[in-house]
Amino acid sequence: MMLLALALLPGLLWDEPPASVEALREAGITSIYVPAERYKAWKQAGQFAAQTADIRHVVKLPAPAVLYRNNIASATRAPWLVSSGWRFLRNTQGRFLYEAQGTQAALAAAEAFCFGGSALVHTSGDGLKPFAEMIEFLRGLGESDTAPVADIGFIDDGSAIAGEVMNLMVRDNLLFQVVSGTGPPLKLTVRLGSKELPLKDARNPSMAAHEIRAQLTDERRSIRVYGSEVVVARLTALPDGVRVHLLNYAGAERKLDGLRVRVAGRYTKHRLAVAGSPQAELLDYSADSEATEFTLPELKTYAVIDLSR
Amino acid sequence: MPGPYPGRVIRVHAQGAIDAQTDAVSRPVVQQMLDAGMQDLTGERRPADAWARFIAPEDVIGIKVNCSGAPQIRSSPEVVSGIVENVMAVGVPASRIYIYERFANQMRSVNYGSYVPAGVNVLAAEGDFARGAVLGYDPYTYVETCFFGEDDTRSNLVRLVSDRFTKIINVPNAKEHQASGITGCLKNIAYGNFSNVARSHQSEKTFTYSFIGTLAAVQPLPSRVVLHIMDSLAGVWHAGPFSRNRRFRFYPKQLCFGTDPVAMDAKLIELIEAQRKLEGAISIFDRSRKHLGNNRDPNFNRFIREPGHVEYASKLGLGIFDSGAISLREIEL
Prior knowledge:
Number of helices of chain B: 10
Shape of chain B: globular
Oligomer: heterodimer
Number of strands of chain A: 19
Number of domains of chain A: 3
Largest sheet of chain B: 11 strands, mixed
Structural class of chain B: alpha/beta
Radius of gyration of chain B: 18 Å
Strand content of chain B: 15-25%
């Protein structure tokens, strides 16, 4: 039985019969999770590492994506990101299941890894190779469960509005963690319904997210991203620095040509890993007493930059 | 900016410069206009000496064209090639001349390369990258501000401007602009040399009033832009900066010369206003919400225009706006 909460890497949920083993091998898949009713057949076939997946209590997630909505009138031109990052942050012990086809399977795996979530990805044949390649990339990154870096402590009342505010904070690259209000103080602690963030204002989650940003101020943000509206950034702590995660929700089909990143703090050393671009090098790197900045020349789906002093 | 001739605008008109029916431009007439304008601006008797007031053989020259309304309206290739010819006559080799814009697709629709000598560089800041790519911009020179809550709050200067060019010749068109009221010298310098500027407009609101001048004042831009030659052979009096509707195009058949972008744009406001009055359209200074709407009708607009950006720029020291202090000289060929 799979222990989802302890998994470091997302797993593949595969509900095809053992006759599909060649497709898995061709794609580079080395292990799978199967529904309980398929497990016996896979075990008898004996050709592949299969485990049963307990999907009775999983939270189902949509595939990560960008909805450009060019034909819909809107108060904003910003594209809509289908992101589940906030769900992982709200429910750190949760078990999740993506439905993701094609290259979105890779994006789903990267998103779960980026947010430290325990997830399975259910895909079809065209998602196998992208998924396998992403897992191989993630495996090369090493330990993933380092502590998140947050600027904002968010006291979550469990409401739908609070969920949407968290969703918009993720999309706006406002680093937060869900807190109870009794832990060590962060730069800003937010609770819907407080004097600083009245419920009547929070009914418009977008305005609430903007208000939180205004209260924090851009100057105090630990990370800023310039050059894209479809990249979500996340920071996790390393022993002597931070790990920068950059996730392009447009995916590999719409790779980004250049992204400028600013991280608070001075980090003189860096190590870069970009999925699908093994030769990539950071450009225009600078580190002063306040911040470190660099340009990532290309981003297909996911990049990780380890910064150290 | 405003350079050696603050408040001075030279306007050269030639009836034969452009055929209003076919949009065909006469290269020989344009050359005469360039000569006349440059000689009058500088007081030099020989065109080569006039150009040498601004350019030296060792310079790297950027020619900032405007292709935002291309292919219907753009800095005419005949004007641009005439400028290139004069710059080369000063002694600048083709390899150190750059005709540039921000967007490659707009540049391609004009095909400047077929009008200029081999070796002249024709390129776009965002090149062959995806629209919005940051690699063609200087990561260290930017204006940071938030207009509508956008997360990307930086507008960066074209990297060639900070890293390569020693002088820039600005070649805008004469156009009304739905957001800024007009688009002439200042807007072509500002929005044409910085990334991520469209974020300053949303719904009917635009921050062009202060953003245009703010960008144009960012060094090294104002110290590198040495000359403005406004291509007003054809213009747009409504629904600019595009020219999809031929009804809104007009033909001043002029080239304007100066080193003061504010004074030149002040005169452009007059030109656009006069044409709109002739057409029975409301002023670009109109701020009534009842005129917000589909701009197929020239009495409606998508934005509340901000032509005051020209006067605002004067307060940043970019030039002279006071009409009493502007000297307009008109030359008829």
